[in-house]
Predict the structure of Peroxidase.
Amino acid sequence: MRKHIIVFLVASILVVGCMGDPGHGRGRGHGHDHDKGRGHGGLKMHYYLNRCGSVSVEKTVKDIVWSKVAADNTMAAKLLRLHYHDCFVRGCDASVLLDPTQNTTTEKTAGPNRSISGYEVIDEIKTKLEADCPETVSCADIVALAARDAVSFQFQREMWPVFTGRKDGRVSLASEAVTNLPSANANFTTLLTQFGDKGLNLNDLVILSGAHTIGVSRCALVSRRLYNFTGVGDADPSLDPEYAQTLRKLCPQPVNGGTILEMDPNSSLTFDSDYYRALNEHKGLFVSDAALLTNQQSASVVKVLENQLVFFAQFARSMVKMGAVEVLTGDQGEVRKSCRVVNGQ
Ligand code: HEM
Ligand SMILES: *[C@@H]1O[C@H](CO)[C@@H](O)[C@H](O)[C@H]1NC(C)=O
Ligand SMILES: *[C@@H]1O[C@H](CO)[C@@H](O)[C@H](O)[C@H]1NC(C)=O
Ligand SMILES: *[C@@H]1O[C@H](CO)[C@@H](O)[C@H](O)[C@H]1NC(C)=O
Ligand SMILES: *[C@@H]1O[C@H](CO)[C@@H](O)[C@H](O)[C@H]1NC(C)=O
Ligand SMILES: *[C@@H]1O[C@H](CO)[C@@H](O)[C@H](O)[C@H]1NC(C)=O
């Protein structure tokens, strides 16, 4: 009983800290405003309700995603990351899905694309929806719903509301993926700036980084921390020495950059608050993870988010916010027929 009151208070403090962002307060997150489509960049709850006859868009996405995640437990992380990469480059407009053409190198060809996948799952959902409700459901909404459903499979309930009505963009540039997506070596200042550019604040940065509670990376992105941090053959002093030793065993020299590493060593298949516990034990995998402890305010949020109930509530809030970054709605953009190519090509 008492624990729940404390959780509530702590969550409230975090939420009050975010009140500066109009339309994103949690109190407004479940009110009537959404039915009117206000806030969240013009997105609505159940936008497709009267647009696809008896077909439930949400159910179609959920059924396919759940079957894919049930068959492949690495798929949840992939679909979650896909949504993040979409939203951070030109907003959540499915630009991340466009295949390169003869003329353009699209986002997915850029360096940060590595290990991005899940495209086939999006294609499968799109094919089904085009058959059941043609030229209506955007790829950007499919990506947003798929990310939510992928994480939700573990809990068998919706972990956050997904507002819909996004349109798909017609532009995708590799160069923008490079400049907009934070690097694994980014420091706190850079991370805060890059999130700020997307209308996301310090709390969102710390909360959304908790996505690294699931999924994997590769030795290439951490070897510098293990062997040559300052360029003179030493390890990153902010990394727990025992954990550094464990990682050196997993990534022995000469480093095979492609070797897979779990980001949350205890439970990389489980969506939980262990990411923050690991951070506080100085076992965050990337410099960008460890960076969250280098700022006092950020470090205090990391501490609070060790509480799983608080983390889940806050993650839901920040995902709704991220899902509304620079979205195209109404007459903007288009509904692609194939998620990999813009219409008319
Ligand atoms: C704070 C800035 C962030 C940085 C610097 C960052 C960096 C990275 C890197 C370097 C990887 C490994 C990629 C690879 O091995 O090629 C990764 C994986 C991942 N990231 Fe992030 N990320 C950030 C924020 C986020 C956010 C906001 C989300 C989602 C809300 C997210 C979700 C994921 C997931 C789920 C994976 C695992 C993917 C898989 O297992 O396939 N990340 N991230
Ligand atoms: C691709 O480039 C060629 C030659 O520059 C141009 O004629 C064509 O219109 C371009 N196609 C698209 C889709 O931009
Ligand atoms: C991702 O980027 C790498 C390196 O820039 C490139 O070699 C690879 O083909 C890209 N992957 C996809 C799916 O485009
Ligand atoms: C953070 O990184 C940026 C870009 O690499 C750099 O310009 C800046 O000096 C760094 N800030 C701190 C506090 O180290
Ligand atoms: C270590 O880092 C320095 C500076 O970044 C670089 O010049 C050097 O080649 C690196 N050494 C190894 C063994 O990677
Ligand atoms: C990992 O599990 C061990 C043993 O259960 C526990 O002591 C440790 O705190 C956990 N670490 C993280 C980062 O969750």
Observations:
- The CA atoms of residues 152 and 159 lie 5 Å apart.
- The longest strand covers residues 216-218.
- Confidence is low (pLDDT under 50) at residues 15-38.
- The radius of gyration is 20 Å.
